[in-house]
Amino acid sequence: MKLFTLLLFFYTLILAVTYSSADEPSILPISKSEAAAIVQAQEMAKEAAKDAREAELKSADITQTLTLKQGEQTIVFNKVRPNSAHTSLESVSETQSKTGKATITSAELLDLIEKQKNVQSITLSGEVHEATGISELWWTDGEQRFRVFTNANFLYLGGISRFEDKAVSYSVFSIITPDYSNREAEKWRPALSDFTEGTLEYLIMEGSGDVEAYYGLEAMLRYYAENEQTLRIAYENNKKLREARRAYLKAHPPKQRDIIMNYSAN
């Protein structure tokens, strides 16, 4: 008998999304050495851009300098001669009026509005068990609290802020963290064997019987099912890049720079 059928909980329900993990990933996995090379190139480019900006500020026609020390940080105020070159700014509406790009009829505007997808927001928090990848998710809707377990690893969805299906555009705000603690003795959670192999399922621990309350979660599970390999590869690539960046910055701390502020007074 599966553990979640025990009468330890107020009620339990299972809803499922079948899926195939044979989708072709849109990105390729990177190795640790590739991650290190990418980070090195990015950090060196950042430092080069800062060097160029610093040189540009120092090369201005400076007439007066004031230096302030704030802790370990030095702030440099440079008074420079006014630059005769200027940029003529024009409002967007004026530019559009001249080009005619802003012209639209009432019928066209209504047509655009009708074609806009319904926007729904999804806000949830959760933890993912390190060993199994099982996610525990919770959110609130009004006074109702929801808590579910699912065999989808929501760490893979942690970087998703927006996705859409044929009818709805979803805006997502989620805080999903790894659960590294060893709390099996304190807290029950399902095992992978409690879920049907090849099926994305979620087990309702707290919530309501209103099926509409789970539409957002089911939309995320459908998106997960359609993009599982790409999401996993992206998550693992980002993890390697974060580890590589920590290692690189530890070995190559960023150059301590002054804050340079150039100003002119007419």
How would you describe the overall organization of this protein?
The chain has 266 residues and is of the alpha+beta class. Helices cover 31% and strands 29% of the residues. It has helices at 32-58, 92-99, 106-115, 215-251, and strands spanning 14-18, 62-70, 73-80, 118-129, 135-141, 144-150, 162-164, 168-179, 199-206, 259-263. Helix 1 (32-58) crosses helix 4 (215-251). The longest helix is centred in the last third of the chain and has 37 residues, at 215-251. It is elongated.
Q: Outline, from the CA principal axes?
A: elongated
Give the strand content.
Answer: 25-35%
| Rg computed from alpha carbons, rounded to a whole number of angstroms | 27 Å
Mean pLDDT: 82
* Poorly predicted ranges: 1-11, 84-102
Biggest sheet overview: 7 strands, mixed
Cα separation of the termini: 83 Å
SSE run: EHEEHHEEEEEEHE
Strand order of the largest sheet: 1-9-6-5-4-8-7
> So how many helices?
4
Helix vs. strand class: alpha+beta
**Count of DSSP E strands?**
10
Helix content: 25-40%
